Amino acid sequence: MDKLSHFVKASWEEVTQNVTWPKFSELQSSSFLVLIASLIFAMMVGLIDLAFKSGLDLFYQSF
């Protein structure tokens, strides 16, 4: 139990004193970048899905 309490205390000290946290404006810009990248990726996957669906529909209609 002593090892666990030491680990928790050391972890808390590391997080509160040694970690450099980003500013709120940096978090906002990073979040915006992730949002845009996610939307672009979703559109690409949607277009690929549409292409496969159209191709398979044409393939199945030929029989």
From TrEMBL:
The family database entries (Gene3D superfamilies) matched by this protein are listed as: Preprotein translocase secy subunit (1.20.5.1030)
Q: Which InterPro entries does this one have?
A: SecE_bac, SecE_sf, Translocase_SecE/Sec61-g
Where is the protein found, in the record's own terms?
Answer: Membrane
Q: Which residues cross the membrane?
A: 32-52
Q: What GO molecular function terms would the record report?
A: protein transmembrane transporter activity
Which UniProt keyword terms apply here?
A: Membrane, Protein transport, Translocation, Transmembrane, Transmembrane helix, Transport
According to its UniProt entry, one GO biological process term is: protein targeting
Major subcellular location class: membrane
The terms describing its cellular component in GO are: membrane
Q: What is this protein called?
A: Preprotein translocase subunit SecE
